């Protein structure tokens, strides 16, 4: 106890000058800022506030907003239902229903896509782990930060909604297309 | 209560001939021979010796229960043997220890030459280096070669999470690929049989599936076709890979080439909660691991028990789980007399009926699908009411490998607990006659549709009281006056005795639906209502009590059964 007390450093309070004790100069310097903004807003049209929600803030690049699913340039759902995001999601906001055993001819060589994909936006903490873990570049944190609804169930976004909000991702890597093209080329190859 | 342990009874094992070797510089005595896949003694291999030293040698094609192929090369390790002089005498170091000649390539004495640990026998004085730099380099090279044409489609592969290629790549592989050429494309989504889907691109050609189906299942259906990097697994032309053991190849496949159509794209394996249980489809009682997520059963996999099923199980038993969670499963407790729908109400009514029943007016038909503990309690109930009891035999087709002709999982439990001492089902005609002539007024049925076994609907309609417990609806449950929804074995704990007299316990994998409760729970309450309070609080207590009261189980305790079960005297 004593040792702890001995280690304490005492900071001496500086004595205020007469003017400082009056507080009037400090008040005046604050009021100057207020009056400057008042003048600028009223007569020079320089607005510092926004009419939210009619006006919205332009979010910077790399902002972590709500995660949405994206499609590729061929209108294909990029998600393959690998469920890594569901596994990594800290608040357990994501729930994926895998497609099951039936062979879906429309998936082509990708074989698999989610039957259902739900994100509970009330649980989501916008951490971005889902985007980081995704091996298919199928989910991205986008710029929406203000999500509202009138019921809890409305805040669980399903696959349709997430894809509609997510839009198209134009990435240079088209893994599955490249694989399919390669396989086609090999099939078509006829040795002399 | 003292029971002689098995160790005391057994005579001392004959001395095992051992060989002294060194593994990573540590001296070790290993037996000269070890049982091979069929149990015959064979010279101990390097892989087995390393395992005894506590070092796992990575492997794909080697499996302890399959003949050795030695084709994947993953288990290559560096080794050395005692150097021999021209006079065939060991060359010694200065300190007198034998000089070891490390194995090297014939014309490159600086490069280590590995040997496949799965098929190379050890010899006296041999030194194994499973952790040396050269061994590591060999593993890296083998993995690189295996990954050349691998499609790397782990995100859509069902094996991801339990894939040996993934595991070894992380553990022994290189971080990046040097392969820049186009990969060879092979057939994908190949329909190999009614239960198996094949992806040839993922295959590492270990031939485990071929050896299993040829040598264990006895159905030589698979083979490798095409040459070089176009090698691929295929079924014999015009044939389906459809034997009753085909799904074992899915477990055997170290990669995602063979996948189960039933489990395909159902759930990633890391979400599954795995429970040690048993298969209840026939009397063999194969040990299984039940995989479930969020109370939904998704797959059964065999769990190795060399005293019962080895590492295998049949496809029929493996896929026989869907009925448990059917939509129409019984989930409400009902008394049609008063319309009561609570356990307390219905059990009180049942107790009233049984208490007032005159001796000889009660009969019980108890299924051999109930656990020993339940049969024990039901037998107590029968003694209390002076009831006549019987069970129903269920015969079917068996096979030479695992499937038993007895389709009840607990026929021996029925005999050992005293529900049916002799042949099952011989009392049924007596019960039917008793009901017809008005002597039997109350029938208790557990887990059987008696309308299909000699007590037809018109017989049941003569009863005053029909008390039924079951899992799925049938004609008997429809006619029940008191319906007590029970549990499938996968929804409760308990023990079965298989056809060979092995007592095995199983754990609860999923919650029962609705009102359904384990039978032993409400049977204990029923006995209490009838003035015979039981002093068990849990299934463990009930089992220990049953073991005390039943001669066949004398000396057993729940905590001492273990995961693999114990043999009891039939």
Tally of distinct domains of chain B: 3
Q: What is the chain-wise order of helices and strands of chain A?
A: HHHEHEEHEEHH
- Which architecture name of the largest domain in chain A does CATH use? 2-Layer Sandwich
Give a short account of the largest sheet of chain B.
6 strands, mixed
CATH overall fold name of the largest domain in chain A: Alpha-Beta Plaits
Question: Judging from the principal axes of the Cα atoms, what is the shape of chain A?
Answer: elongated
Rg for CA atoms of chain A:
29 Å
Q: How widely separated are the two ends of chain B?
A: 21 Å
How helical, in percent, are the residues of chain A?
Answer: 25-40%
> Biggest interface, which chains?
A-B, 23 and 21 residues
Oligomerization: heterodimer
Low-confidence stretches of chain A: none
Continuous helix count of chain A: 7
What is the 3D shape of chain B? Answer: elongated
Strand content of chain B: 15-25%
- Give the second-level CATH assignment, the architecture of the largest domain in chain B: 3-Layer(aba) Sandwich
SSE map:
The complex is a heterodimer of chains A (192) and B (570).
Chain A: H1 2-7, H2 18-22, H3 24-43, E1 67-69, H4 84-88, E2 94-97, E3 116-120, H5 129-133, E4 139-141, E5 156-157, H6 159-166, H7 175-188
Antiparallel strand pairs in A: 1-4, 2-3, 3-5
Chain B: H1 6-9, E1 18-23, E2 26-31, E3 33-35, E4 41-43, H2 46-52, E5 76-82, E6 100-102, E7 104-105, E8 108-112, E9 114-116, E10 127-129, H3 133-147, H4 164-172, E11 190-191, E12 196-198, H5 208-216, E13 222-225, E14 232-235, H6 248-252, E15 258-260, E16 273-278, E17 287-293, E18 296-302, H7 315-318, E19 334-335, H8 343-356, E20 362-366, H9 372-385, E21 388-390, H10 411-417, H11 428-436, E22 442-446, H12 457-460, E23 465-470, H13 475-479, E24 482-485, E25 494-497, E26 502-506, H14 519-529, H15 539-549, H16 558-561, E27 566-567
Parallel strand pairs in B: 1-10, 20-21, 20-22, 22-23, 23-24
Antiparallel strand pairs in B: 1-2, 3-4, 5-6, 5-9, 5-10, 7-8, 11-12, 12-15, 13-14, 16-17, 17-18, 19-24, 25-26, 26-27
Helix pairs in contact in B: 3-4, 8-14, 9-10, 9-14
């Amino acid at each position: 106890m004593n040792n702890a007390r001995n280690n304490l450093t005492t900071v001496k309070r500086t004595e205020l000058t007469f003017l400082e004790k009056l507080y009037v100069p400090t008040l005046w310097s604050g009021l100057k800022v207020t009056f400057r903004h008042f003048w600028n807003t009223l007569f020079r049209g320089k607005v510092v506030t926004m009419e939210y929600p009619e006006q919205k803030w332009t979010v910077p690049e790399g902002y972590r907003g709500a995660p949405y699913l994206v499609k590729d340039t061929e209108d294909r759902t990029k998600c393959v239902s690998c469920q890594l995001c569901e596994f990594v999601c800290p608040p357990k906001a994501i729930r994926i229903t895998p497609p099951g055993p039936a062979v879906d001819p429309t998936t082509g060589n990708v074989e698999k896509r989610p039957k259902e994909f739900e994100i509970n936006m009330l649980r989501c903490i916008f951490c971005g782990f889902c985007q980081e873990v995704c091996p298919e570049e199928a989910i991205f944190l986008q710029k929406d930060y203000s999500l509202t609804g009138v019921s809890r169930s409305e805040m669980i976004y399903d696959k349709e909604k997430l894809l509609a909000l997510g839009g198209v991702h134009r990435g240079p890597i088209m893994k599955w297309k490249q694989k399919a093209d390669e396989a086609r080329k090999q099939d078509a190859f006829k040795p002399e | 209560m003292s029971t002689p342990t098995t160790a005391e009874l057994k005579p001392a094992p004959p001395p095992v001939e051992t060989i002294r070797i060194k593994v990573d510089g540590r001296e070790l005595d290993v037996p000269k021979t070890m049982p091979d896949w069929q149990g015959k003694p064979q010279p101990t291999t390097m892989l087995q010796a390393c395992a005894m030293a506590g070092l796992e040698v990575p492997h794909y094609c080697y499996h302890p229960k399959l003949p050795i192929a030695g084709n994947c090369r993953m288990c290559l390790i560096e080794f050395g043997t005692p150097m021999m002089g021209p006079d065939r005498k060991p060359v010694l170091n200065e300190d007198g220890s034998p000089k070891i000649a490390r194995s090297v390539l014939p014309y490159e004495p600086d490069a280590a030459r590995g040997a496949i640990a799965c098929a190379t026998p050890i010899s006296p004085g041999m030194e194994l280096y499973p952790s040396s730099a050269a061994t590591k380099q060999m593993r890296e090279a083998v993995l690189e070669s295996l990954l050349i044409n691998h499609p790397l489609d782990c995100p859509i592969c069902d094996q991801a999470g339990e894939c040996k290629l993934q595991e070894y790549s992380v553990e022994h592989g290189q971080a990046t690929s040097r392969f820049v050429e186009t990969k060879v494309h092979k057939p994908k989504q190949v329909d190999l049989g009614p239960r198996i889907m094949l992806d040839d691109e993922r295959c590492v050609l270990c031939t485990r599936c071929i050896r299993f189906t040829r040598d264990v299942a006895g159905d030589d259906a698979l083979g490798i076709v095409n040459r070089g990097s176009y090698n691929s697994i295929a079924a014999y032309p015009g044939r389906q890979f459809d034997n009753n053991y085909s799904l074992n190849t899915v477990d055997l496949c170290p990669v995602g080439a063979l996948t189960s159509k039933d489990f395909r794209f159902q759930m990633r394996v890391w979400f599954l909660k795995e429970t040690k249980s048993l298969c209840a489809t026939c009397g063999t009682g194969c040990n299984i691991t039940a995989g479930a997520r969020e109370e939904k059963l998704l797959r059964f996999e065999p769990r190795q028990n060399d005293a019962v099923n080895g590492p295998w199980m049949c496809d029929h038993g493996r896929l026989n789980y869907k009925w448990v969670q059917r939509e129409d499963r019984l989930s409400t407790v009902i008394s049609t007399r008063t319309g009561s729908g609570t356990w307390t109400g219905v059990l009180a009514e049942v107790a009233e009926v049984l208490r007032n029943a005159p001796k000889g007016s009660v009969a019980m038909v108890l299924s051999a699908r109930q656990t020993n503990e339940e049969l024990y309690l039901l037998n107590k109930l029968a003694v209390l009411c002076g009831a006549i009891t019987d069970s129903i035999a269920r015969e079917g087709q068996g096979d030479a490998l695992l499937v038993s002709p007895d389709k009840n999982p607990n026929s021996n439990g029925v005999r050992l607990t005293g529900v049916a001492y002799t042949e099952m089902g011989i009392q049924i005609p007596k019960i039917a006659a008793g009901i017809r002539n008005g002597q039997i007024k109350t029938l208790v049925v557990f887990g059987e549709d008696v309308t299909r076994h000699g007590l037809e609907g018109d017989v049941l309609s003569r009863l005053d009281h029909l008390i039924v417990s079951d899992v799925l609806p049938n004609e008997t449950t429809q006619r029940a006056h008191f319906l007590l929804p029970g549990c499938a074995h996968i929804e409760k704990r308990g023990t079965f005795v298989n056809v060979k007299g092995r007592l095995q316990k199983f754990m609860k994998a999923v919650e029962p639906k609705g009102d359904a409760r384990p039978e032993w729970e409400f049977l204990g309450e029923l006995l209490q209502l009838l003035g015979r309070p039981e002093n068990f609080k849990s299934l463990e207590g009930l089992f220990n009590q049953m073991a005390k009261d039943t001669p066949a189980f004398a000396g057993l305790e729940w905590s001492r059964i273990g995961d693999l079960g114990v043999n009891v005297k039939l």
